[in-house]
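User:
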Amino acid sequence: MQSDAPSSAEDGYHPYAEPAGEPCAEALLATRAAGEIARQLHESGRALRFSLTASAARVEVLLCDSDGTVLSHLTPARALEVAAGGRWRRR
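Assistant: Predicted structure:
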């Protein structure tokens, strides 16, 4: 594959950013909560899928079953509520 970027660190190309340090406690807590919700969804045969709309102007969030069948469309705000530990089942 051809690339315009230099191919090695000695050429001045660094493929990885410098580490940002330790995440704050709030970020760690939010990540744990989102991971728990993802585990619960997975165990129930469901998953949240994110994609850009055709115009790339909005994010589309779908609740799908294990076969990929769309069960529900969620707003991005609702998906964030779910990821933060909110109730994920249909209201």
